[in-house]
Write a structure and sequence with these properties.
The protein has about 210 residues and is mainly alpha-helical. The protein has two domains: about 50 residues, Arc Repressor Mutant, subunit A (Orthogonal Bundle); about 150 residues, Tetracycline Repressor, domain 2 (Orthogonal Bundle). The protein is globular, with a radius of gyration of 19 Å. The longest helix has 26 residues.
Length: about 210
């Protein structure tokens, strides 16, 4: 019975997270409510409180899921490795980021609110998933560049991760933002997640835009 109950709880948590993900694909963080998330589940809306205390905790769980998906992509990249050099690595890494649009969107939201309004247990689980991404990215670097030292690898990682937090705002603009740019006379280039990421990775590796 306990095992069955644990499995039911896991399925319902996953259903709540997936409901949140579906809403987040077309809505902003601030516009999504617990009521709307609950209405997208197959069970009583008030039951959501049995699994999550706040909206922020649900989003943190979604954030964790997205990190885990990216870590899986990075692990596959590390296993492939090969002697493709900086350009090959930049291309492959940029492709993994390009596939994680929801992760980039989550990164652009105020993470402090999500963490501050979530229980410590949930925050610890999230940090573990984040740490797994760091480790997977480090494995990628050593796979593509066997001669890279620990200091250079850590330097790359702690420049690349903060960079990712700004990718979504620079590559996804609303109609209102575009209009404001035009009225302000700002010459704003069209940027893609892949292009922006690839260029940055090459610069971090000291290879320019080659």
């Amino acid at each position: 019975m306990p095992a069955c109950s644990d499995e039911l709880a896991r399925r319902r948590r996953d259903e709540i997270i997936s409901a949140c993900a579906g809403l987040y694909d077309t809505m902003s963080f601030k516009d999504i409510t617990l009521k709307e998330i609950g209405e997208r589940t197959s069970f009583t809306r008030t039951s959501i409180y049995n699994y999550f205390h706040t909206k922020e905790e649900i989003f943190l769980a979604l954030f964790r899921r997205e990190y885990e998906c990216w870590a899986a992509d990075l692990d596959a990249l590390a296993e492939g490795g090969g002697a493709s050099g900086a350009a090959g690595f930049a291309d492959a890494l940029a492709r993994t980021v390009e596939r994680r649009g929801r992760l980039l969107k989550l990164m652009s939201v105020n993470l402090y609110d999500m963490e501050g309004n979530s229980p410590l247990e949930s925050l610890v689980a999230f940090k573990r998933s984040y740490a797994a991404c760091l480790a997977a990215l480090e494995r990628c670097l050593y796979s593509f560049f066997p001669g890279m030292g620990e200091e250079d690898a850590r330097g790359f990682i702690y420049a690349f991760l903060p960079f990712l937090f700004g990718v979504y705002p620079y590559t996804v603009l609303t109609d209102k933002q575009r209009e404001a740019m035009e009225l302000a006379g700002v010459d704003y280039p069209e940027l893609s997640v892949y292009g922006l990421t690839r260029s940055f990775v090459l610069r971090l590796l000291g290879r320019g835009d080659g």
